[in-house]
Design goal:
Blueprint (H helix, E strand, L loop, with lengths): L6 H4 L75 E12 L12 E13 L8 E14 L7 E13 L3 E16 L2 E19 L4 E14 L7 E13 L4 E14 L6 E13 L4 E14 L8 E13 L4 E13 L6 E15 L4 E16 L7 E15 L5 E15 L9 E13 L2
Antiparallel strand pairs: 1-2, 1-18, 2-3, 3-4, 4-5, 5-6, 6-7, 7-8, 8-9, 9-10, 10-11, 11-12, 12-13, 13-14, 14-15, 15-16, 16-17, 17-18
């Protein structure tokens, strides 16, 4: 695993007005875009690039918290100035990876060089105009010093459109990512193409009640023949009632179907429950949802339905003007792409903290634990338990010229156990160290 040394690039999508491709995370956790937090890897980025990473589940911190999270300051420019709409940046990194294939036996280490230019267009910052459009493209060039056959060029494309009206907000997003790297669910290397597209609509029914709805499509394709790609369709519906100035709550209902490739059984999921937010103070906010999920499987030999409690809870707190803390608890189901006719319940906890040591120097620490409990979609499915841990430390320094420099170190470990002798277990330990730099040209 590689962590960006820049906490600014480590931040989740809610920090930036124009999020980078949100599906650039390997989807190693419950990807319930329309479940509990139902506004929008995946917990952890495998060793794919020296780009962004986030230990928190996607979607938990989508809503910026006043006083806690704000977009990075930009140099003021005229609204019609092209340099205020087009942005170009370049990042580069060198990473020493102790176990590039995340394998238990025959571990291989390597030094990986990465260069990623990003071109971005933003018509206007979020909330600054009735209609906003943003598009960004990032190619990622990776060069291995020893395993040169793994040299590759990845691609990341993100498009977002938003329209705001007095009572209605409409959003559209499309994200594409082509990546190559290791994955904690499968030893070796994964070459992956991912596409995600979605539409969200929020309508103010009354002064205190809002109706939220959305549809989403996710596509994953693997060049590795032993893995199972999928087309996933999801839809959600929810109500939000502003009970007080600080508390909002309401019910949600969501449906998801995953059409699996290579003969693995398709999986359907229905989830319902309650979600809400609590603005404890100007420095502390809690988002949460608790629900019940039922997973069913299509096929003559399919197993009985799998039921489970699901939850996603996120909390953010500004300990001081220089220190921010974020925590999340989650549990949800996901179809497995590494084992046929199988799904798993991912339950975990993540914690991160950042501290501004000076006007130019900052540091961060983050860690997570996730337990994966596999369940069978048929008699051919697997029974497996995974315990995954990770911790990372990093620092960044902003030079007077605008150049950002950073360094980081991370450790991750996965231990698995199975009652099925035929199941391959993916145990590994990995230690990485990296240095990187980035510069915004305009």
């Amino acid at each position: 695993m590689f962590f960006s040394a820049f906490y600014g690039t480590l931040r989740p999508s809610w920090v930036v007005a124009d999020p980078k491709c949100r599906d650039h995370f390997m989807k190693t956790s419950t990807q319930q875009s329309f479940l509990p937090f139902a506004c929008v890897t995946a917990l952890f980025v495998p060793s794919i690039s020296a780009q962004t990473t986030d230990v928190h589940p996607r979607g938990i911190f989508d809503t910026p918290q006043p006083g806690l999270d704000a977009p990075l300051a930009r140099t003021p420019a005229d609204a019609d100035d092209w340099s205020d709409k087009f942005h170009f940046s370049l990042s580069a990194s060198v990473r020493s990876d102790g176990n590039i294939f995340l394998s238990d036996k025959g571990e291989e280490s390597d030094v990986i060089f990465s260069v990623s230019p990003t071109l971005r267009y933003v018509s206007a910052e979020a909330g600054a105009a009735e209609n906003t459009f943003a598009i960004s493209y990032t190619p990622n060039f990776q060069v291995y010093s020893e395993n040169t056959d793994r040299n590759n060029i990845g691609h990341s494309l993100s498009i977002r459109l938003d329209k705001s009206m007095p009572k209605t907000q409409i959003g559209f997003n499309l994200n594409y990512r082509k990546s190559s790297g290791s994955d904690r669910f499968v030893s070796g290397t994964i070459d992956r193409d991912s596409l995600s597209a979605g539409v969200t609509v929020s309508y103010l029914l009354s002064g205190k009640t809002r109706l939220n709805a959305g549809v989403n499509y996710d596509f994953d394709d693997f060049s590795n023949g032993s893995l199972f790609g999928n087309d996933t369709y999801a839809a959600n519906l929810g109500l939000s009632y502003q009970a007080t100035g600080k508390i909002s709550l309401g019910p949600y209902l969501s449906y998801r179907v995953s059409e699996m490739s290579a003969g693995s059984l398709d999986q359907d999921s229905v989830s319902y429950g309650m979600k809400g937010t609590y603005e404890v103070s100007g420095k502390t906010a809690i988002h949460g949802s608790v629900g019940y999920s039922v997973d069913s499987f299509d096929g003559a030999s399919s197993a009985s339905d799998h039921s489970s409690l699901v939850w996603r809870i996120g909390a953010s707190h500004a300990l001081s003007s220089k220190t921010n803390i974020r925590a999340s608890l989650y549990s949800g189901t996901k179809a497995s792409y590494s084992f046929a006719d199988s799904g798993y319940l991912a339950t975990g906890v993540a914690l991160s903290a950042s501290h501004q040591l000076s006007s130019r120097l900052s540091c961060y620490v983050s860690g997570m634990y996730e337990q994966n409990d596999y369940f069978r979609a048929s008699a051919l499915g697997t029974s497996l338990d995974n315990d995954y841990y990770s911790i990372a430390l990093g620092t960044r320094y902003q030079c007077a010229s605008g150049l950002m420099l950073g360094a980081n170190i991370s450790y991750s470990s996965n231990k698995s156990s199975s009652s099925t002798a035929a199941v391959g277990q993916n145990d590994f330990d990995n230690l990485t160290f990296g240095v990187n730099a980035s510069y915004d040209f305009w």
